[in-house]
UniProtKB/TrEMBL annotation:
The keyword Acetylation does not apply. One of its GO terms (molecular function) is methylated-DNA-[protein]-cysteine S-methyltransferase activity. Its EC number is 2.1.1.63. Keywords: DNA damage, DNA repair, Membrane, Methyltransferase, Transferase, Transmembrane, Transmembrane helix. One of its GO terms (biological process) is DNA repair. It catalyses: a 4-O-methyl-thymidine in DNA + L-cysteinyl-[protein] = a thymidine in DNA + S-methyl-L-cysteinyl-[protein]; a 6-O-methyl-2'-deoxyguanosine in DNA + L-cysteinyl-[protein] = S-methyl-L-cysteinyl-[protein] + a 2'-deoxyguanosine in DNA. It comes from Pelagerythrobacter rhizovicinus. This is Methylated-DNA--[protein]-cysteine S-methyltransferase. The keyword DNA damage applies. Residues 101-178 form the Methylated-DNA-[protein]-cysteine S-methyltransferase DNA binding domain.
């Protein structure tokens, strides 16, 4: 790296450490990632390699470290959330995104377990102008599955539509919450 003495390479300054671990749960495999601030990602899937790629794509400048032992207590709490979303998560979150995404995600965190809202309802309730499509895009960008409950958003007719981690998982999460 060719930098002048006393200067900071912005690529190095932007790098951060993200620790992550995997855990099985009833709907597949969870990848839980943490920064120094808190839980930065909760991803769901069936393939560890695909989940690792998804994490790397979400945090392209970060140094990733598999830390199963160091994150054991955090992972345990996240898996409890995934199994029983109505119980909530008592961990700090490192929520990252654009201004509109963050406003959408904040609104979604206010939707009680067992209830659903439409993309349009969220858009109309925001303190900034947004369309239902923009709400959908914010949901698609969410990397904190269930902690930011995008699974609680449905189409205008009440039907279940796309979900970053699969419509089947969305349906099962909603069913769990409805039965709690």
């Amino acid at each position: 790296m060719n930098t002048m003495p006393g200067t900071i390479d912005l690529r190095e300054a932007a790098a951060e450490d993200i620790r992550f671990a995997f855990a099985p749960f009833s709907l597949g495999t969870a990848l839980v990632a943490a920064s120094v601030t808190g839980v930065a990602a909760i991803l769901m899937g069936d393939d560890r390699t695909a989940l690792s790629r998804e994490l790397a794509g979400a945090f392209p400048a970060a140094r990733m470290t598999l830390d199963e032992a160091g994150l054991e207590a955090v992972v345990e709490k996240v898996v409890a959330l995934l199994e029983a979303p109505h119980e909530g998560l008592n961990l700090p979150l490192d929520i990252r995104g654009g201004a509109l995404e963050r406003v959408v995600w904040q609104a979604l965190r206010a939707v009680p377990p067992g209830e659903t809202v439409t993309y349009g309802q969220i858009a109309r309730a925001l303190p900034v102008p947004a369309t239902a499509q923009e709400v959908g895009a914010a949901c698609a960008a969410n990397v904190l599955a269930v902690a930011v409950p995008c699974h609680r958003v449905v189409k205008a007719d009440g039907s279940i539509s796309g979900y970053r981690w699969g419509v089947q998982r969305k349906r099962k999460l909603l069913n769990r919450e409805a039965m709690a």
